[in-house]
Write a structure and sequence with these properties.
Elements (H helix, E strand, L loop, with lengths): L11 H22 L8 H18 L4 H32 L2 H9 L8 H37 L10 H33 L5 H20 L2 H7 L9
Length: 237
């Protein structure tokens, strides 16, 4: 396989594998957030439940239960943001020890590539980790906005501004969840990117497996089937 010319050790197959990874990442985001009509993804179904949540929130007294849910959502985003920070720090530490990593990778492949090649591969992983961190931080902030909007909803359900404000809280909540899910997908594909250390073909395999797992969870999982079940069952027989 010919080298790309810019860096000895990187081939056209490597470029194709990286392009496939990025395209799979973008395709997953597109198809999940804008699924075909009549076949919604789990994320889209959950968005509708978030809207229903805010409608019920208007009539629920007291509203401590709802505030606890938002607090739990913020804790989850804070955890993943912290984990992404640790991953970024670990990635920079590996960049400083690329020679040792080169020796480990040489045991998995037939030849040892130049150090600069391993630095490029690590940088790809770092880019996914950085994107995940930014998405989780923004999601955490949006869930904070949601809590403020919920606090601004009047206790009186008959107040004309009560339902509109609750709907605003629902849309911000959905936006926060969307950013959170994008962060998770960056984590998934960042893990797949780490397989590039073993070569271009393993990266292609990891990309296909990662994409298949994500799409199965969004379009063919048990949880999605549960969400699609009718909410009203006729128990009389």
């Amino acid at each position: 396989m010919p080298d790309l010319g810019l860096f000895t050790g990187l081939t056209v197959l490597d470029a194709a594998a990286v392009a496939g990874l990025v395209l799979a990442w973008a395709f997953a985001t597109r198809i999940i957030e804008h699924p075909p009509k009549g076949h919604p993804s789990t994320s889209v179904l959950m968005a509708e439940y978030r809207r229903e949540w805010m409608v019920h929130f208007v009539h629920r007294q007291p509203r401590i239960f709802d505030s606890q849910i938002v607090a739990n959502l913020r804790q989850g985003t804070a955890f993943f943001a912290s984990a992404s920070m640790i991953a970024i720090g670990g990635g920079f530490a590996l960049l400083g020890n690329a020679d040792q990593l080169r020796g480990v990778a040489a045991d998995l492949t037939e030849s040892a590539d130049p150090v600069v090649v391993f630095e490029i591969k690590l940088m790809l992983m770092l880019l996914f980790a950085a994107n995940a961190f930014l998405k989780f931080v923004w999601s955490h902030r949006l869930f904070g906005y949601t809590s403020v909007l919920m606090a601004a909803v009047p206790d009186d359900a008959s107040n004309p501004i009560t339902l509109p404000r609750a709907r605003k809280a629902a849309e911000i909540n959905i936006t926060g969840a969307r950013s959170y899910n994008r962060g998770l997908r960056s984590v998934y594909f960042g893990i797949a990117a780490s397989v590039w250390l073993a070569g271009a073909v393993p990266l292609m395999v990891a990309t296909v497996i990662t994409l298949a797992v994500i799409l199965r969870r969004e379009f063919a999982s048990v949880s999605r089937a549960v969400l699609l079940e009718p909410t009203d069952h006729n128990t009389a027989s």
